[in-house]
């Protein structure tokens, strides 16, 4: 199995499918990430806020997989955006991960009420230039936030990691990003289980037609849309199921039918409300 890669605007590449560890409990993280690495995942998405960077690092060390074969993302939390705090925060994350650099470092939320996200982005540029992050990007940024950081630095984020699933496709953000070469990472790719996505007829019909699970259909839809995804599961069977996406393809009609499930339905917080 070969996982396709997506190229960033800085020339680096990311495996399009990875494994996310939001709400993976710190004590169990090493085991579940090791299982994911053994199953074939090579891209892990964590964050300082998830409180499980140490478990991710322990799994990487135990796996014996050469560092250059792995892609590790972590994120700067909102309370570390001011002054030189981001420079300290990356060092803390690297120490927990047991790494000398991450492949991608993100500003986790714009937290606009704090007014520090442009400063945070300027510090991420320094972190990249110091070799501690190969690529840098943002998460939960709306077009106005993207415009502000680009204006301040002339450095265009490699990615914007946003809530994106069939009922909430954020066309305004994805169009803005596409026009500037910013890749989209879709978080909550399965809608976080918060609405009956798997029972929607276009998803169920495609699952029947291809002999795949509804979750596999939705993940395949993301890949064909060009999104980078890293579904989370605590179950070893689902971890393997979510990797098994490369022996079928949705037709253009199936892809379009899932696009038509757009309902403007955010399942999580609005970016301006997380501060
Ligand atoms: P998700 O849409 O991946 O949903 C996870 C849920 O789907 C879990 O309840 C899981 O049990 C279920 N699931 C997984 N595989 C399944 C399968 N094959 N069949 C049936 N159900 C299945 O949501 P998520 O975990 O929130 O998002 C994925 C990753 O995105 C996270 O782990 C994290 O890395 C990242 N994330 C980032 C942010 C951010 O603010 N940047 C926010 C949330 C999540």
Features:
single chain, 275 residues, alpha/beta, TIM Barrel, eight-stranded parallel sheet, globular, binds nicotinamide-adenine-dinucleotide
Structure description:
This protein is of the alpha/beta class. It has one domain (about 5-195, about 225-235): NADP-dependent oxidoreductase domain (TIM Barrel). The protein is about 40% helix and about 15% strand. It contains ten helices and ten strands. The chain has helices spanning about 25-40, 55-65, 85-95, 115-130, 145-155, 170-180, 200-210, 215-225, 235-240, 250-260; strands spanning about 5, 15, 20, 45, 70-75, 100-105, 135-140, 160-165, 185, 230. The strands form two sheets. It has an eight-stranded parallel β-sheet with strand order 3-4-5-6-7-8-9-10. β6, α4 and β7 (about 135-140) form a beta-alpha-beta unit. α2 crosses α3 (about 85-95), α3 (about 85-95) packs across α4 and α7 packs across α8 (about 215-225). The protein is globular and about 55 Å long. The termini are far apart. About 45% of the residues are buried. The mean pLDDT is about 95.
Number of helices: 10
* C-alpha Rg (nearest Å): 18 Å
Label the overall shape: globular
Helix fraction? 25-40%
Q: What is the architecture at the second tier of CATH?
A: Alpha-Beta Barrel
CATH 4th-level superfamily: NADP-dependent oxidoreductase domain
Q: What low-confidence regions span 5 or more consecutive residues with pLDDT below 50?
A: none
